[in-house]
Structure formats: structure tokens, C-alpha cells
Amino acid sequence: MESPSYSILLHYSEIALKLKNRSHFEKIFIQNIKIHMQGLEYSRIELYAARVLIHDINKDIWDEYKKRLEQIIGMQHATLVLKTKTDLEQIKNAAKLLIKDKNIDSFRITTKRNDKSFEYDTNDINKYLGAFVQELTNAKVSLKFYSLNIIIEILKNYSFVGYERIKGFSGLPAGSQEKALSLISSGIDSPVASFELIKRGVKLDYIHFHSYPAISNQSIENVKEILNILKLYQLKSKLYLVPILSIQQKIMEIIPDKFWVIFFRRVMLQISNIIANKINAVALVTGDSVGQVASQTLSNIRAISDASFLPILRPLSGSNKEDIINKAKKIRTYDTSVLPYQDCCSFFVPKHPETKAKMKDILFYESKINLDDLIDEAIINIEKVNINIKDNV
Ligand code: ATP
Ligand code: MG
């Protein structure tokens, strides 16, 4: 007998809610899937009843597909399936094929009936197929502790019988929203903050400030490494590397040390606004989490934000460190984030930084310093790096 042809059935999450723009989101979702699947075997990708099907995959390397599928933003879950006609006998045959090489001692059947006009309801189908599989394998039915979950989806013309459902991150397809510029350090927080917005479909470019050559270029190398991981989710982006040593030196010359970090951060925002305007980004992103360090008290957040025209998105503002660390591990940026590096700000941090800056002090000192020429010079010396998933495959 001819060997069966396997497909992958993908469910997307919130695209389903976007009634008006649905086809726009679906198009981007499918374009992304094609890039994620590059180098892996399949015949075609089909949109079918608010689902996406990847046809004729090579089941022998399912683990490879799995790894890639997990990274597709906007995906709720994906299942390895056989496609059949919506007919109980044919569904039964598909189930038989599916478990042919499986050695199982327990299983369950999970049926979802989309086509309510189908003559059997989920209970009937579960029972009928359950009895069939039990007889075929001698395995017992167990709804909680099973070694195999046989998944059935009943649609109007075609139905699907499968197993090995893997969970995605859900959200909106990467790159389906407008652009924002993410301020990225090589710490733990800003890569996670970036990911949270990639997950909302925001198109991110990145900006990193460094004090090379006063400190090593390790932060730059680490940021590039982190972006090589984030490009698994948002497939291409740009990184802007900005030298700010001379600006920092001038700040340290003129401003009292307790305000240094606030002024460093204000300059970062000023430069980020200029770059954002040039690249049509309409918001900035940072990894701030309230109260985590001195620069992240509410007063200091206010004193820093005041330097930005563009809205600043801070997806981690209410997150606990432990949760941020767990997320960093899950998206695989953690190991790089904990590599040693010197940060452009912490390197010059005074012993007693201001924790409750007053706007009147900030504005007073700002009037004492003119950084315009140095900012222009930093912008001229920006190095741009293209980050693209295609450079790896
Ligand atoms: P992270 O773990 O992201 O470094 P953090 O908890 O160490 O954050 P800070 O170092 O105070 O906190 O940085 C707050 C935010 O400012 C960062 O999340 C990032 O968005 C931005 N930021 C800090 N340093 C840099 C830098 N060198 N280049 C670009 N952005 C930076
Ligand atoms: Mg940091």
C-alpha cells in the first residue's frame, strides 16, 4: 500500500478575531510560515477554514518541523495529521494508519466538531473510535494519563486525524503591525521586552548604545548574539549601534554624578527618537520594570521619559524578575544575557544615584549642557547591521 501523506494542521490565535483585516494577517502569517519551513520538505501551504495546512511533509523528521513550528508567532498550536473525507469509516481508517507503528499502552481521543451538521456528535465519535483503537491495540483509555492523544477535527468536507499537538506562543503574526524601535542592552530584560512586542506583531528594529573603546565591545557581540536568537521569531530586522562615549564624558564633566544615569538615558531616548523618525518607527520599547534598579523608580522613569516625543512601550513594567528570567529561558535569550559584559551605563555608575529625580533639577542641569554637536556626531558614526534569518539556512 502507498504510504500515507502527512500534513501539519496549524491553528492561529487572534487572527480569527480580526474580521475586517483577516486576509491581511493571514497573508503575512503564511509568508512567515514559508520562511520558517525553508529547507524542509512539503508540497504546498493551504489556507483552509481558518486553519493553515502544510501538505506532504516528511514525517521521519517531524522533530525538525516541531522545532521550527514552535517559533511561528501567531500560532496557537500545530498538529501532525492525516487528511480524510468527513466520513466516519474514512476517519476510522485514518486513525488506523496513524497508530500503525505505535506501541501504546494508553490513549484518549479528543474530537472537535466544527461541522455541526455531521451526523455524529463528539461523544459518539470518541466512543466509536475509542472502542476501535482499544480493540486494535489492547491499550486502555485514559483521559488524564495517556501515552497518545488522538486528535480529530471534523470540518465540512475534510476532516483531520492526528497527534503530537505542539503549542505555539499565540499572538499576532510577526511583522503584522507598525514599526517600533527597541532599546536593547545585552541584559536579561530588554530581549524579553522585545519578544513580548514581536509576539504582538510589532515590527522591531533595534538600537544599542555602547561606550567602546573605553569598555570592551562584549556588549555589542552579546547583543548581536541575542538578535540572532530573536530573529527565530521576527525573521528580519536592523540593529543600530551608537557610540556614546564622548556624550557620556561631557555629561560626567558637567552634571552632578547622582544624575548621570538619568542623563545617559535621556540622551539614549533623544537619539532613539531621531533614528525612529528616520526609519518610520512610531514607538520606542524598553525593558524597564518598575523599581528593579535606581533608574526605574516612577520618578526617574518620568524624568527619563520626558526626553522622548514618541510613546515608550514597557511591556515588562509590571513583571517580576523571576517571571522575566523564566521567559528569557523559554525564548532562549537567557544564556547569552548572563554572559559577562560591561554595560555603558553601569560602568560609570556613581555610588549614590538619585532615586527620586525632580523635574526642576533635571531641567536646570539640562540648561547647563549642550550636547547637540556630540549627538550629531554619534548619529554620523552609527553602524547599521542587517539581521536576517535567511543568513542561517
Ligand atoms: P536590561 O536587563 O534590559 O539591561 P536592566 O534591568 O539592566 O535592563 P537598565 O540597565 O536600567 O535595566 O536598562 C533599562 C532599559 O534601558 C533596558 O531594558 C533597555 O531597554 C534600555 N537600555 C539600557 N542600556 C542600554 C544600552 N546600552 N543600549 C540600549 N538600550 C539600553
Ligand atoms: Mg542593563
What does the secondary structure layout of this molecule look like, with pairings?
Elements: E1 6-12, H1 22-36, E2 45-47, E3 51-54, H2 62-69, E4 75-85, H3 88-99, E5 106-113, H4 122-137, E6 140-141, E7 148-154, E8 158-167, E9 179-183, H5 189-198, E10 203-210, H6 218-230, E11 236-243, H7 245-254, H8 260-278, E12 284-285, H9 298-305, E13 312-313, H10 321-330, H11 334-337, H12 359-366, H13 372-380, E14 383-388
Parallel strand pairs: 5-6, 5-7, 9-10, 9-12, 10-11, 12-13
Antiparallel strand pairs: 1-3, 1-4, 2-3, 4-8, 7-8, 11-14
Helix pairs in contact: 3-4, 7-8, 8-9
Bound molecules: adenosine-5'-triphosphate and magnesium ion.
The site of adenosine-5'-triphosphate has 19 residues, from α5 and β10.
Order of helices and strands: EHEEHEHEHEEEEHEHEHHEHEHHHHE
Quickly count the helices. 13
Runs in which pLDDT lies below 50 for 5 or more consecutive residues are: none
Average pLDDT reading: 93
Termini separation: 35 Å
The global form is elongated
- What profile does the largest beta sheet have? 8 strands, mixed
Bound molecules: adenosine-5'-triphosphate, magnesium ion
- Beta content: 15-25%
**Radius of gyration, whole Å:** 26 Å
**What is the helix fraction of residues, given as a range?**
25-40%
Find the count of extended strands (DSSP E, 2+ residues): 14
Helix/strand/pairing category: alpha/beta
Biggest sheet strand order reads 2-3-1-4-8-7-5-6
